[in-house]
Amino acid sequence: MASDRLARQIQFILEIDKLKSIMRRSYLLNQQRHENSAEHSWHLAMMAILLHEYANEQINLAHILKMVLVHDLVEIDAGDTYCYDDAANSDKAEREQKAADRLFAMLPDDQREEIRNLWEEFEKRSTPDAKFANALDRMMPMMHNYYTRGKAWKEHNVGSDMVLDRNSVMKEGAEELWEFTQSLIEDAVNKGYLASPKKKEDIRDE
Amino acid sequence: MASDRLARQIQFILEIDKLKSIMRRSYLLNQQRHENSAEHSWHLAMMAILLHEYANEQINLAHILKMVLVHDLVEIDAGDTYCYDDAANSDKAEREQKAADRLFAMLPDDQREEIRNLWEEFEKRSTPDAKFANALDRMMPMMHNYYTRGKAWKEHNVGSDMVLDRNSVMKEGAEELWEFTQSLIEDAVNKGYLASPKKKEDIRDE
User: Fold this and answer.
1) Integer Cα distance of A14 and B143 in angstroms
2) CB contact residues (below 8 A), chain A span 81-100, against chain B
3) B199 CB-side CA count, 13 A
4) B57 inside 8 A of chain A by CB
5) How far apart, in whole angstroms, are the C-alpha atoms of residue B137 and residue B152?
6) pLDDT in tens, B177-204
7) Which of A46, A137, A182, B112 lies most in the core, judged by the most C-beta atoms within 10 Å?
8) Burial class for B36, CB neighbours closer than 10 Å (0-12, 13-18, 19+)
9) Which of residues 159-198 of B touch A (CB under 8 A)?
10) Contact A14 B107 (CB under 8 A)
């Protein structure tokens, strides 16, 4: 009944239902469970709609929406790689390339190329749109951590040096949002949600 | 740290995390749990990206993406109303208007108006964009039902007459997708995933 083209599109739409079962390390704000990558992608898209005025450069919101909606699809095969897990990050790129090869090949050629380009643009972080999309993707977990009193940070022994180091790229996309995020990080250290290496040292010195 | 405007935007972004805990009647394709409204909204946005070529009329994809991303926000207060639950549907509009009043008032005025307009446009189904967005919103649960062998249909005693009656509006937005969906419904009846009133009658007559 469906054309070959529609049949392929439908198969892909069914396949990506699996993103709803890919779990991240961050918790929902109500702390009842971890967040999955599909709902995270939705939340990023909402952030883009509401915060695009803070982009450093002129950006294309429609393009950013597409980018954040597809940016985690490769996790269907490659899983979510925790950003502070060095071992898992060593082969992340390879795993994700394989995932992209398999997943996007399900689509008609023109759409395979479109979705792959969106994903690669996000990963390369070299265009204004990708820089802003990445800034949102970094900002969100920090909000989840701050407003759950550092629940995931504490579970994974994450220190403020690691958080600052990883997330300072936010400033490439959205300086004002990075300033806001830095104030959250600082306050998280003050409130004991996030360990400060300096403080750790002080404790050792005592 | 944050301007009043950014503070309001952040509060809204935190508030809508609750959509991840609003459960629908449809199941994930792996049947392990019900789907929530945040991941459903993401999936609809992906459908819009992949299927917008089937819209009956010329549409604006960026506008449709925004519309489907926000279309269920009111469920944070009003809950998900099952489409075949007549009692719950009798006060749905009133509950959702109240929800929109509270939720969207959290935003700066310009954004309150933008998000509310998107939601109302979706609800009214009078523009080409809204017709197409609604067609996707009707199509998705039928795919979930068909590919889980009618799990939610069976649980709620849904018959093919109800499904056809509710979803024929799909043709206003996307005739080809409605044809495809009708073929799914027909096949679902043949395979016993969905009860046919005609067949029920036959059984009573025996």
Assistant:
1) 8
2) none
3) 12
4) no
5) 16
6) 999 999 999 999 999 999 997 554 444 4
7) A46
8) buried
9) 176, 179-180, 183
10) no
Q: How far is CA B168 from the centre of its chain?
A: 14
Report DSSP letters for A71-86, one per residue.
TTTTHHHH-PPPTT-H
B27: closest CA among A26, A6, A79, A21?
Answer: A21
Give me A42's structure tokens.
């939705």
Q: What is this structure's pTM?
A: 0.94
- Facing A69 at nearest CB: one of B12, B45, B111: B45
Per residue in A79-120, pLDDT (tens digit) is 988 888 888 888 999 999 999 999 999 999 999 999 999 999
Beta carbons of A20 and B35 less than 8 Å apart: yes
Other C-beta atoms closer than 10 Å to the C-beta of A58 total: 7
Q: Would you say how long chain B is, in residues?
A: 206
Chain B nearest-CA distance from A197, in A, is 24
C-alpha pair distances (Å), B182 with each of A14, A33, B170, B190 = 18, 37, 10, 12
Confirm whether the ipTM is greater than 0.90.
yes
> Is residue B118 within 8 Å of B133, Cβ to Cβ?
no
What is the SS3 assignment for A160? helix
Element (H, E) at B73: none
Instruction: Name the minimum distance, in Å, from the CA of B46 to any CA of chain A.
Output: 7
d(CA B74, CA A174): 29
Two tokens at B140?
Answer: 């998705």
User: Kind and range of the H or E element at A34?
Assistant: strand A34-36
At B106, is the secondary structure helix, strand, or coil?
Answer: coil
- The tokens of A71 are what? 């940016």
Distance of CA A92 to the CA centre of its chain: 14
Query: If you write DSSP's letter for every residue of B12-51 in order, what string do you get?
Result: HHHHGGGGGG-EEEEEPTT-SSEEEHHHHHHHHHHHHHHH
Which residue from A minimizes the CA distance to B139?
A10
pLDDT tens column, B7-48: 999 999 999 999 999 999 999 999 999 999 999 999 999 999
